[in-house]
Amino acid sequence: MPYVVTQPCCSDASCVVACPVNCIHPAPGEPDFATAEMLYIDPAGCVDCGACATACPVDAIKPHTLLTAAEQPFLGLNAEYYQVFPHADRTPVAVVPPQRRLRSDRPVRVAVVGAGPAGLYAADELLKHPEVSVDVLDRLPTPHGLVRAGVAPDHQHTKQTQRLFAQVEELPGFRYLLGVEVGRDVTRAELDERYDAVVWTVGASADKPLGVPGEDLPGSLSATEVVGWYNGHPDHQDLAVDLSSPSGRVVVVGNGNVALDVARVMTLDPELLRGTDVAGLPWTVLAQSAVREVVVLGRRGPAQAAFTLPELVGLVGLVEQGLLDVVVDLGGDPLPADTPVGRMLALLPSYDAGVPVDPVRRRIVLRFLAQPVAVLGETKVEAVEVERTRLVAGADGAVRAEGTGETELLECGLVLRAVGYHGREVTDLPYDPATGTVPSDHGRVEPGTYVAGWVKRGPSGFIGTNKSCAQETVGRLLDDLDAGTTSPPTHDADDLPALLASRGVTVLDLADWRAIDAEERRRGAASGRVRAKIVDREEMLRVAVAARRGPAKPDRGRSRYSSGPKVRSPR
Predict the structure, then answer these.
(1) Which keywords describe this protein according to UniProt (predicted)?
(2) 481: phi > 0 → left, psi -120 to 50 → alpha, else beta; which?
(3) Are 201 and 451 a contacting pair, CB within 8 Å?
């Protein structure tokens, strides 16, 4: 009974270390570990001990007998990996490299700006050294970045990565300073004065434009904003998402994981989302939606699609369960049947076959070799002009899409661009506008200043990719500490909360985050949901401040939040 990996990897590598026969690959130190979508278990080598399943922090590993119908393709994918990449020279036990130690045992204080996956993986790497303590700052009152506000609500298994983050938060030397916006509430110079080093992990928060006429019309939105909207991100709760168009169609431009997430959330029966952590008002809008079809446009073919294989497997699984329909429009090109993506797409009906529209189920159309050339409408989005493309190989061998001149109109009431993220300029740091990143030498901007995550490498990889990225950056930081090239702090970092308080900033710590988390879970349990997210910053602060005071006194006839000091909400 072999065990099977069933979702993208968090790169914790606990399963690799736990496996007594080294049958899980790619492993740390192997070339593809840092970039692999997921890990694979060799069915021929698995001894059915279950150690990997016990070690996995996100419950991604199951015995093959417990796979659901939707998860069955992962059994073949695990076996197929070893047909292409055999590991016959495996050793009995995974090799764990020795832990690096700093040359000096003097106390070191590091600030990490950004509490998303990149920031928390960086904190984890730093706190492996007993000399180091870490303060993690974030402008929001809640941490965990895109795991909290970017993962689709129907993918609760992916959000289990927060278990790893909770373990990091409990490490000695860890401290949160949440609700603090660097550049507004405190400057880079003030951080440099108080810390031996500062690691910036602020991500890539902007989205790339389509560059076509009409994309600024009402009803043309960023998929990034929509994801934040239904996930309860405070910045996006006032977003106008109109799903009432008589056309019943939404067009999503781009075919990466974000595009599939948005398409799936908009076509699933809202009742399937009711028990998740989807934000309350967006759920109501989705429940009243007139959308019957979401068309996902990709300029190139399925072989060049940006979505990951696990995302496609999950989509096919929903079709097999009868929860929605998905059809494939290849634009006249043959299906790449010799690839895993091609074999999964072959399980779906072809658009050319004239698949009838089901009166009950909504559907997604995966349309390849198509690009928008204009968004049309008088006062709001009414249609998209779509051009067929063809693939051409450039002089460098890269395959590109070029327009054929053949166009058609797709009526729709909403256009969502999902063609990639782009990093914004960070105050007082160098910036490359072409890549949207802070230029660095493997994470080192200069001694004492470092970057990790998307601000370092651009918007690429998966949640787990941030672990190897953070390891590389922290390696540079430790090199500089050992070489003595960083400047020691001239101020005490412990005075930072008082400095911020003097500026009217209410700083939230780990206990405050735990209070918000507990309140969200309490509200969720009361309504049969995983959690009911608090989406208003002021309310988050009230919950945290109330928890500091303890239980409210009864029978006062006033809200327990109606008195006390006024707090300034972080933006």
Answers:
(1) FAD, Flavoprotein, NADP, Oxidoreductase
(2) alpha
(3) yes
Strands (E), 173-260: 174-178, 197-200, 206-207, 220-222, 249-253
Q: How far apart are the first and last CA of the chain?
A: 52
- CATH homologous superfamily of 209-417: FAD/NAD(P)-binding domain (3.50.50.60)
The predicted structure's pLDDT at residue 459: 87
- Residue 333: the pLDDT is 81
pLDDT digits (tens, 9 = 90+) for 330-386: 987 888 878 888 888 988 988 776 777 777 889 999 999 999 999 999 999 999 999
- Rounded to 5°, angle at Cα 401 from 399 and 405: 150
Contact indicator for 227, 261 with CB cutoff of 8 Å: yes
What CATH number belongs to 3-84?
3.30.70.20
Amino acid letter, 401: A
Domain spanning 108-205+423-502, CATH architecture: 3-Layer(aba) Sandwich (3.40)
* Residue 118 CA, distance from chain mean position: 10
Instruction: Return residue ranges of the chain for CATH 3.30.70.20.
Output: 3-84
Amino acid at 439: P
Location of each CATH 3.50.50.60 domain in the chain: 209-417
CB 179 within 8 A of CB 508: yes
Sheet holding 399-411, edge to edge: 370-376, 383-393, 399-411
